[in-house]
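Journal club side-thread
Mid-discussion, someone asked how the predicted structure for our own chain would compare to the paper's figures. Pasting it here so we can look after the session.
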Amino acid sequence: MAHPVNDHALDVIFRDARSYNGWRDEDVPEVLMRAVYDLAKLGPTSANNSPARFLFLRTKEAKERLLPLMMEGNREKTLNAPWTVIIAHDMEFHEKIPKLFPHNPGAKGWFHHIKEPTAFRNGTLQGAYLMLAARALGLDCGPMSGFDNEAVDKEFFQSQGGEMANWKSNFICNIGHGDRTTIFDRSPRLDFEEACRIL
């Protein structure tokens, strides 16, 4: 049976977690980022279609290709982050369904007419799973929009050809050990009564 995680875990993943705008000068090894993905990939998606694709940028050279495509306010924090992840989704995700949903490989045909909303919805979920996994493994996140999606797709995906040519960017997330001096006071959230209804 599943048991609730303890309060410390809830603090790390939700209550004390924040969106960071700056980073401490601490290395985050590749093995840890691989561990983040290995947790995130376990989150549920429709028929296990797993459309999210993640491009991990670590080098200064890779980030310098990205910076001109971002709003000015997002550039410095991205350059200084140990890792920057472009969260994307594969518009041809259904081609992998026979591998991912082996008990019903015919599920590949379920998505032909709804590829775009399915890829976007489930890819967004997987981007959130990536952030929760990073937090659970002791890292901090700085998710953001504020970039030219079409330009990013052209620069990083279409230019590569092959399967990557079918990827579309959704949002970007910096990952590392956050500098708490760079966060704002937590903004208000809606109460249950404001955001929820029970029928």
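Post-session note: The radius of gyration is 18 Å.
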